[in-house]
Amino acid sequence: MSKIMIWVGQFDSEADFEKYMDQSAFRQWWKEYDEDNKKMRCQFCKELGVMDYDEDFLIMKFTSDGLTGLLNLIPANTKKINQSMADKNIAMANAVICYNCREDISPKKAENTTTMTYLGTFEFELSPEGVQGSNVGLKYIIWIGTTDKNQEEFMEYFNQDEYLKELRAYEDGQTKKRPNPEHRCQFCKDLNIKFYYPEFLRIHFFDSITPPAKMITNLINDPQIPEKWIDDDCIENNITKANCAFCYIPNGFRDKKKDQKIYILKEENKGLLGIPKKHVDALSDYNGLIYLSSYKLE
């Protein structure tokens, strides 16, 4: 599971919060002059002591529902967040920033903010215990099967370190060379996407014999998805045993700017109405597993 850094703060309005995070002036300067400009940085970056942040790996939320409403927006264990706030004597907050721990902001720099308070590093949880709300609208793309690879070998399929390094260098202006699409991980190549968000990828290996439908139900961990849907798909695809399954949630941010549109078209569904123009044909092999189905409650 991915780890995220979390900051909370109190702003007079959502517009003030957005201004605090707005790095459009810095980006425009880079576009025109191809160099850093410390004065053009957003206030968040100035306080941290960094040039900029990567929007692709940041979540920012604002609420007018007070501290309780804010807790409902934070994708981490609610009890741990509450305890951290209590330890730091935080009684009011209406804005939160979450940032992937691997994206160039050190824990030492994270504590430099003065407008917002750094709570620490937490495990990313899409549906943390204690958070009110619904997963309706989330799309779960499922793969399942039997693999003879060990866990380290299996995870190489998802290794996107080289591509992300090139992407960061390009976006930070360190190079004008775009990242090489051939350096994407094989998972991204198979889905025809540039990169995936690790916080929305779930992978389970199973040592004991478990019915495939039950395996996937545990993987999704969303009681709103009927197990019968999954069971019917397993039967239709003749899946009677498996030792591995993984799931990707391309719209986990619930943000049109960040969410990815992924549609995998199976052979038997070709010719049906409602198929998006942007789609990829289903492959027979995804790291030794098969594509089962996608589940989404509207």
Provide key terms for this protein.
4-stranded antiparallel β-sheet; 298 residues; globular; alpha+beta
Number of helices: 11
State the distance separating the first and last CA atoms.
26 Å
The share of residues in helices is 25-40%
In spatial order, strands of the major sheet run 2-3-1-4
- The succession of helices and strands, N to C, reads EHHHEHHEHEEHHHEHHEEEE
Mean pLDDT: 88
Judging from the principal axes of the Cα atoms, what is the shape?
Answer: globular
Biggest β-sheet description: 4 strands, antiparallel
Count of domain modules: 2
Determine Rg (CA atoms, Å): 21 Å
Kindly estimate the percentage of residues that lie in beta strands according to DSSP: 15-25%
In total, the number of strands is 10
Q: Give unreliable regions as ranges.
A: none
The computed structural class is alpha+beta
Tell me what you see in this structure.
The chain folds into two domains: 3-123; 139-296, no CATH class. The protein has a four-stranded antiparallel β-sheet with strand order 2-3-1-4, covered by helices on one side. A four-stranded antiparallel β-sheet has the order 6-7-5-10, covered by helices on one side. The chain has a two-stranded parallel sheet with strand order 8-9. Helix 10 crosses helix 11 (227-236). The protein has helices at residues 14-21, 24-33, 43-48, 66-71, 78-87, 107-110, 151-155, 161-171, 186-191, 212-220, 227-236; strands at residues 3-9, 58-62, 95-100, 117-123, 139-145, 201-205, 244-248, 264-265, 280-281, 290-296. The chain has 298 residues and is of the alpha+beta class. The protein is built from eleven helices and ten strands.
